[in-house]
Design brief:
The protein has 378 residues and is an alpha/beta fold. The chain contains 13 helices and twelve strands.
């Protein structure tokens, strides 16, 4: 058996979110064909490692060169020198773009690098920054490939970042759709007791400003009927979300259980998924909800209008319009048969288009091409 591929992962953060969950699924799929070193730009943000399967060889890098800071030849050289220990470098999002810039500045002896862009934080949710676009154009010229999950990001990569068509790979995020057909575990959500007389509006999101969950609280607060809002995630906006719920007089209707892994264990407790984020690309929570047979009420961010079934499109509303989001939620809350029919259409589409086996095969092929080693990760 050939030696395992030695892969370096440069993450802006390794707390479990969409990009981290995908990276971990790929690590698990590669099994003993690879070993991994993980760098997190936020040193203590490492919760995604709890999802790495037993037997997968990995380590968290100790004292790596910093991924962020002012442009510096010395820092780029230190990053480049560190990367030379590995067979393949995978960089993720703006917070790790300096890995690509370091490879551009010090290309001699550098391993191949694949950069992944999954979306933007609050500081670019309203529009991309010109200086960052210029920086990305320069840095990404050193990458073997750029992987993106959405059509929106693919267009940005081609038109704004001026990347060659052959270097940009749109690979749709996938999940194990079969897991989501099972019944939810009764006690999977701490602090939540199922009540058949309530309609449960669910959200899966980091509690960050860009997710605009206070807007979701206000929208849900305007919905009539017996409802419960469950927001699964953790982050700095927790106190603001609680405050918004109190202001709407619905503190007793809000459940904030924190971060919970393996959404297939509990997403079936929801009657629908709500997305209030101001910036998304190809949100994995939408795929998870679709696989579970749920309708989606959402702003039209990223690829969501392309992701959901045609039956679900009336419930994808105007961007950042709480009233329209409320109306979409109200229509679904009021009509169980409508929820069931839209959810069934979503589930059929998720199974047909968004299963993870296709995603894994495409990433495996991309990485093997970068390595010029067919079958290295198979």
């Amino acid at each position: 058996m050939a030696a395992p591929v030695n892969i370096l992962h440069l993450h802006s953060s390794f707390d479990l979110g969409g990009k981290e969950a995908r990276a971990v699924r790929l690590m698990n799929a590669f099994g003993d064909r690879a070993k991994h070193t993980i760098v997190s730009g936020v040193p203590d943000a490492l919760s995604a490692r709890d999802s790495i399967a037993k037997g997968v060889r990995y380590e968290i890098a100790q004292n790596p060169p910093p991924l962020t800071g002012k442009p510096s030849v010395a820092r780029y050289e230190a990053i480049a020198q560190y990367m030379r220990r590995f067979d393949l470098v995978l960089t993720y999002n703006w917070g790790a773009i300096d890995g690509a810039m370091a490879r551009r500045a010090f290309a001699k002896g550098a391993p191949p690098l694949v950069h992944h862009e999954d979306g933007f934080n609050a500081d670019e949710a309203g529009g991309l920054k010109i200086e960052r676009n210029i920086y990305r154009r320069l840095a990404l010229g050193a990458a073997h490939a750029l992987a993106v999950p959405s059509e929106v990001l693919e267009g940005i990569a081609l038109k704004t970042w001026k990347q060659p068509r052959e270097r940009v790979h749109r690979i749709v995020n996938g999940i194990g759709t079969a897991y989501y057909a099972q019944k939810p575990e009764p006690k999977a959500i701490p602090g939540f007791t199922p009540n058949p007389k309530e309609v449960v509006i669910g959200a899966l999101a980091g509690l960050r400003e860009v997710k605009d969950l206070t807007a979701l609280v206000r929208a849900v607060g305007g919905v009539s009927g017996r409802i419960r809002l469950v927001i699964v995630g953790e982050g700095p906006e927790r106190a603001n979300i609680i405050q918004a719920a109190a202001a709407m007089g619905m503190a007793d209707k809000l459940v904030l259980p924190g971060f919970l892994d393996r959404p297939y264990r509990y997403i079936g407790h929801f009657d629908m998924l709500a997305v209030s984020s101001r910036s998304e690309q190809f949100p994995i929570s939408v795929v998870e909800a679709m696989a579970a047979g749920l309708p989606i009420a959402s702003y039209p961010v990223g690829d969501i209008t392309r992701m959901v079934s045609p039956e679900n499109l009336p419930f994808v509303t105007e961007i950042a319009n709480e009233v329209r989001l409320r109306d979409a939620l109200q229509a679904l809350v009021a009509d169980p048969a409508l929820r069931a029919s839209v959810g069934a259409a979503n589930q059929a589409k998720a199974r047909a288009e968004f299963d993870e086996e296709v995603m894994i095969a495409r990433y495996r092929a991309l990485y093997e091409d970068a390595l010029n080693r067919p079958g290295a990760l198979t």
